[in-house]
Amino acid sequence: MTTHTNEHTDAHALGEAAKAVVRRNTELVQGGGDFALFDQLFADDFVDHTPQLGGTPDKAGARRLYHALRRAFPDFHAVIHWQSAQGDMVTTYKTYHGTHRDTFLGVPATGRAISFDTVDVMRVRDGRITEHWGVAHLYSLMQQLGVLPA
């Protein structure tokens, strides 16, 4: 019985550590623009299984996306609603917020406040993000920017 308890405790600790890495990325890199921390948190062989339009599925592509978001929405930040960990995989449901101050996805600055929901899964190994899968409600974002009908 002790072995099962230790395995459960180890898995829980691994999950909590992985969630902390993802939370630091969401709050300090995406929300705070700390790109020195980005380099620490993302593995050099990072793979994005769902890169955004025109992006590349690697660490450089994730960095470019984060920079584009921070440039277009200087106050970009997320509210994390919940996180769940299963082993080294962390699922996060969050809502991004910001004010559109520069071109994003070809849309010139509108000055509008935006928010859109995202669900993503990140694999964390040895304290670094190694993989990502995500679904962002970009249709809602484009509606808010006036590109698509409400």
| CATH class annotation | Alpha Beta
Radius of gyration: 17 Å
Q: With helices defined by DSSP (H or I, 4 residues minimum), what is the helix count? A: 4
Fraction of helical residues: 25-40%
**CATH architecture term:** Roll
- Average pLDDT confidence is 94
Low-confidence stretches: none
By helix and strand content, what is the structural category?
alpha+beta
Query: Order of strands across the widest beta sheet?
Result: 1-5-4-3-2
> Major sheet, described briefly?
5 strands, mixed
Bin the strand percentage: 25-35%
Keywords:
elongated; Nuclear Transport Factor 2, Chain: A
Description:
There is one protein chain. The protein has 150 residues and is an alpha+beta fold. It has a single domain, classed as Nuclear Transport Factor 2, Chain: A (Roll), CATH 3.10.450. The protein is 38% helix and 33% strand. Helix 1 packs antiparallel against helix 2. The N and C termini lie far apart (57 Å). This is Ester cyclase. One of its GO terms (biological process) is polyketide metabolic process.
